[in-house]
Amino acid sequence: MVNVEEVRRAALRWALKNALDHGGRAQAGPVISKVFAELPQAREIVGEVVSLAKEVVEWVNGLDRAAQEAALSELAPELLQPPKKRVEERALPDLPGAVEGAVVLRLPPEPSGYMHLGHAFHGIVNYLYKEKYRGFLWLRFEDTNPRKVRAEYYDSYRDGYRWCGVRWDAEKNNSDDMELYYQYAQKLISSGHLYVCTCSREEMSEQRARGYSCSHRSMDTSWHLEQWDRMLEGRYREGEAAVRFAGDPAASNTALRDPVLLRIVEHPHPLKGDRYLVWPTYDLAVAIQDAVCGVTHVLRTAEFMFRDELQDMIRERLGLKNPVYVEYSRFEFEGTPLSRRRIRELIEKGMVEGWDDPRLGTVSAARRRGIAPESLQIFVRSYVALTPSRKEYSWDLLYAINRRVVDAETPRLFFAPNPVPVEVRGLTKRVVKAPLHPSTDLGWREIEARERLYIPRDDAAGLRVGDRVRLKYLTNLRVTDAGGEMLVAECEDGGPEPGLRVIQWVPEGSRRVRVLVPKPLFRGEEIVEDSLTIVEGLAEPYEASLTIRSRVQFERFGYCVKDSEDTYILTHGI
Ligand SMILES: [Zn+2]
Fold it and tell me: How far does residue 253's CA lie from ligand 1's centre (Å)?
């Protein structure tokens, strides 16, 4: 004998499974085959099975992904595959001229502000290449501007890279080699490649903008050497003298128009104090350090391109070896500014709370929000290209990866946003034992249910007298009164069935929590007014046992991180 109810339940299981495996849409064909494979006797009523399966598939396709998953996780958790963590292992594009075991790379952060995701991705790209070629990676702080550098940022970069899973082989500061820059400068002044100029900053900008050189450039070498000594001795004040590169004052690449390579900075350095007055600029320090560190490949994004030529020329004049420059695509996320200047502006205007505000693209924000470092690595591996393109990525791409990475270890709990009480007549006190995860073994929790419980307002709003709904792991119910601020329903024992929406619920005694829901700050150039909303609700009592920083999936709501005793941050949806 064929049991039609059994056929219906089988069709529901396989339709949910098929939908979840295929982006939310099930096909009747495969569902019917599965039903016949499971229940061979059902072939006696082929016509009925087909129409039943079609009906079930149609209903399942009308559910969103979270509802499909909620239903299947109760009905047949064994069919719910824990998502595969790794996407296809994508091979990194080869670096030009790279030889295994002989590749030297460097991370050059300037410890002058918080680390954003662009820095993190740069760190990861370098690290992945170091691994690919079994090379060597330097962490080198570009800290020769005492006015910009702050002591606390050295550690924040170290922590940030470590958190991203980036491991480096050696570490140094550009400020460690001041004597070396002085020696090279002396050499370049003697050979006429650098000159001392006492023009004002305004005069220099004027010359560089209009493409001519000043009279200092043609002075005797002895005069320059003498002024150089005077600079080192502190006989010039800041702004009164600088050492410039004897380049091409009218070069089309403006970086070559006699830029300043050493200048006086009357400001203590966080590591060196006031031991030095004359500091190399970024270009001189990097040009020398890349050679000193034996860097073979410089991985960089397009905005640094115009500096390559200057740095190469400096090294050529010193007889040092040039690295190969490799341009990679820059990563940006839509609606999320990465520049420190813009982020500082947002903080100053009070539009965000601080550097770790969950709407920002800083590493501390991503971390606080619950993005796993492994997800960043997979993201880079999946999307890095050695091209000059600059692409804005959708946050959804990163979320999709993060979901795969964190899902299996993230417990699932019930949360009722904007809860509405339900009086379930006939529901006697019972303890429900519910798994913390439907497909990986994270253990169980117990929820004690009584006549009075709470469901999400969105679910309650759609219910009319006579409607039926399933409370996950607990019971089915039929609504008998849906008039006011409260629902009254009758308990109908039974299992999940097609047509019955599965919703979460929380018992009396649940905890009041709030969830911060961050969205991108900008839509195009326009600031989004409600980029951070707060959802209040009740979380089932087990929530109290979660420690701060724990991840949780509030079923049918989203992945969240516990940020404080009563506050969560939404990482992303389900
Ligand atoms: Zn001058």
Answer: 20
